Queue: 3 jobs
Job 1
Amino acid sequence: MHYAGVDGLIVFPVVTVALSGLAWLVALGTDALGEHVGPGLTGVLQSTLGNLPELFVVVFALRAGEVVVAQTSILGSLFANALLVLGLVIIAGARVSEGGVMRFHPRLPNDTATLLLLACFIIVLLGLSVTTGDRASSHKVAISAAGAVVLLVVYVTWLWSYLRADTRADGPGEAREAGAPEPLPLRTAIVLLAISGVGAAFVSDWFIASLNPAIDALHLSKAFAGLVIVAIAGNAVENVAGVTLAMKGKMDDAVSVVKNSVAQIAAFLFPALVLISLLFSSHLTFVLAPVYIGALLITAIAVWQVTGDGEATVPEGAALIGIYLMLAFLTFYE
């Protein structure tokens, strides 16, 4: 449909379904991969492939000069994962857990909150600088690039430490239910994830191409499109994979999928795209509108408060979803 020149408004919903298909494929591969490796590595690999649509969407948007769509797509992915997807995972996990309490190892949630607050630091500093108009505000591109390098170094340091310490309390392949099918071989799981990653590149390009016609026809703002529509479609992978794992009782895997995605977006994807944008005429920076700076800080605090103790309940998951819905409602009028 894309190469045949079909109207973007018609292509747009089809591309969204294609992203859902990729989500199912990644969820299948991730579930199989979790039978062979620890939850930490599973979450990192799944989040990396799950975030490929966001990476390609932003790169294609920057190439087209759509800075607003690029920036709000990153923020939307972060908010969608940290609030909407995590809330859905908590509700799904708590409903199948004993006593209605979802339990998981608290280290990753706490580490994610730390990385998120670190990203908030550079964003708040630049926001205050630009708002007050001080001398540093005229160098926002250089400051963003330097901050991006710092964030990437910290993320790589954390990732190396996290993966080295990753252990699974129950060994792979044990305690499988009677009659349950054998897990896919490791090689097959990796091939499925690789195919879905390559597919994300093509689908993301088609997504950007059909986005503007859909926005014009539906009379939506680019901010709402980036923060809500692109974010939800691009994070279909985390939605499907995280909720599926939680419903199967694999709480550490489910939390790892979502939390690793949040950490990657805040401390890897965003800074990496800031550096990549230096290759284009339109530069991506850490300068955000004040309303999004406030939303980001509240998100970091909410994520830490809900998951920092290694336990979560249905009302807490509902609260995270409620925060996201209020943010989406506000963005609709931006």
Job 2
Amino acid sequence: MAIPVFEVEFDKNGNVVDPQQVTKALDGIAAAQAGDLLVLSHGWNNDMADARQLYAAILARIEAQLPAAGQGRTFAALEIFWPSKKFTDTELIPGGAAALGDGDLDPAVLISRLEALKSEPQRLGVEEVVPERAAALTQAQALVPNLDNDLDAQRQFVEILRAQLPKDDADPDDGSDGFFEKDPVELLQSLSEPVPPPPLPAGGGGAAMLEGGGEGGLEGGAAGLGDFFSGAKAGAGRLLNFFTYYQMKKRAGLVGRTGAASVLRQIHGRLPQLKLHLIGHSFGGRLVTAAADALGPAVPVTTLTLLQAAYSHNGLGQKYDGTHDGFFRQIVTQKKIAGPLLITHTKNDKAVGIAYPLASRLSGDVASALGDANDPYGGMGRNGAQKTPEVDAAVAFLDRVGTQYRFKVGKIYNLNADEFIKGHSDIAKDEVAFALLTAVALT
């Protein structure tokens, strides 16, 4: 059976681009007499075609598994498009091979990356230069040649970058508070040491690392090599990584809690019996979590599925550091998800850990475990939810089609997907679809 699909696009401020899309979705879902709505959000992505391709692949697997796990249910799908931006290999590993003979990062690489940051997506695939940011980043470009030996240049460079980002999404769970609070010179120096690669998956992981095929090429060979540059310019390159991460983190949260939540309220108002199943990939995981958080009990979310989510593994945690709850802890404590919450995670995912070794450096922890479950700043798509008592360890693996999952309502399931998900975007799998539909069937 073909699931009817509807689209809604948001701009960078979380506004619906075309209100007729919402009207069409409301009318179409009602006409389909759907009982369950799959709400999908892509992650970092550069254009509509890539996002549509990802959605089509996921829905094809779900449709294929309907006879096994979706009998008796009537589905529709709402696809969210939001202005995200791909990370590239040069952002994951500053400079690629463009190092000077002494191991420093080529200043031309930094200048080029600053030039690229002068524009940002207003809509998915539509970038515009932001004049105020462009002027500030031109000043930062002029400081690049002096970064290694001039403390004033280092201070100004960091302060210019900080001024381009609001502080309201800074949080201890991913170290982003340190980005704003630490002394600028100390901050840059803390990022100046090389970042070795995370451990390889069992068996070497060579094929998974070299196949590519992920968003932005992040599972490609370069992504597994680590970042061995040192010095202030290398630290500045890593600071740009964190800048891009933070910008997308904020954007995903904004679109989720404003635009997406508003549309879902309208859908619930029109079709109050419709069950909502939120599914987010990568930064889209943060978007749908933020939407569920904003909706609250007034608009119940039936299930939440996070596919290689790009936010902190502390995000749902309880006093994960002895003091702080995760940013989205209230999702759990206020029971904002009625049914199971599924989280796929795998050590094969190199991309989801972009920000987390950097966060450890921002905090001054240079001996962190580089993104695994022992790293205080690991990623959800790498490790699942950590320090979260509601995780039910009775189901700990993504398993084969036909598995009798023992999911329970109100519980969280960290599904180790090492066997099936071989890279950050390798999520259109029958096994993923079957587990998702099993959770849906429980409701």
Job 3
Amino acid sequence: MLKKIFLVGIGGGIGSVLRFVVSLLIVRIRFPIFPLTTFVVNLLGCFFVGILVGLSLKNNWLDENVKIFFITGFCGGFTTFSSFSLENFQLYQAGNYHTLVLYILINIIVGCAAVLLGYILTEFF
């Protein structure tokens, strides 16, 4: 178990640093009406996790430690949106379409509401 925790930590650290570097590169592109940095990072993370899951499921190329390092650690550190997207893909694959739609809506609506609530609470400090 300690090895898995270490793999997630190292992968997550690398993913977080890479997210920061990618953000620094993208922020140079002036696109004021759209959060381009987050969009690109999320898109790259989702694309990479799709490749990893595909290799793992179709070819059985990745052992458990490699999946933990890259999918949970690296992709999780790079963008948690990739984890969210993977969970949605898994719900789709399992045929849980109602849960899929509900999960997407709840995450977006409750997530935005949590940001708003957190912001509102700062008015009291």
